[in-house]
Amino acid sequence: MTLRDDTERPETVEVGSNILAGTDSDRILECAKMMVDREAIWENPLGDGNAGRKIVDVVRSCILKRE
Q1: Could you tell me the residue range of the domain that residue 55 belongs to?
Q2: What is the rounded CA–CA span in Å between residue 16 and residue 31?
Q3: Which of 19, 49, 53, 57 gives 20 to 30 Å between its CA and that of 64?
Q4: Residues 6+ apart with CB under 8 A from 17
Q5: 20 lies in a domain?
C-alpha cells in the first residue's frame, strides 16, 4: 500500500499488488483493510527476484575470464 496519491511503480497497482491510499487517515484504513482481505494471486511485475544472483554470476564470469 502506497501512502501517496501516485507511485513510480504503477505496474504494481495494475496487477493488484499495491493500492494508492493517499494521506487521508480514513482512506488509509479503508485501503489497509482491502489489502489484508485481498488474495495474493498476482505475478510480480518487477521481476523474478533473482537479479542479484544473476549479477554476481556475470561478475564472477568476467573475473574468471581475466585470470
Answers
A1: 10-66
A2: 12
A3: 49
A4: 40, 42, 44, 45
A5: yes
Assess if residue 56 is contained within a domain.
Answer: yes
Which among 24, 20, 16, 27 is positioned nearest to 6, based on CA atoms? 20
- What are 2's strand-pairing partners? 20
Please state the domain count of the chain.
1
Query: Which amino acid appears at position 15 of this protein?
Result: V
3-class SS string, 12-53: HHHHCCCCECCCCHHHHHHHHHHHHHCCCCCCCCCCCCCHHH
Helix (H, G, I), strand (E, B) or coil at 11: helix
Give ∠ CA 4-5-11 in degrees, rounded to 5: 95
Give per-residue pLDDT as tens, 26-66: 999 999 999 999 888 888 888 888 999 999 999 999 998 88
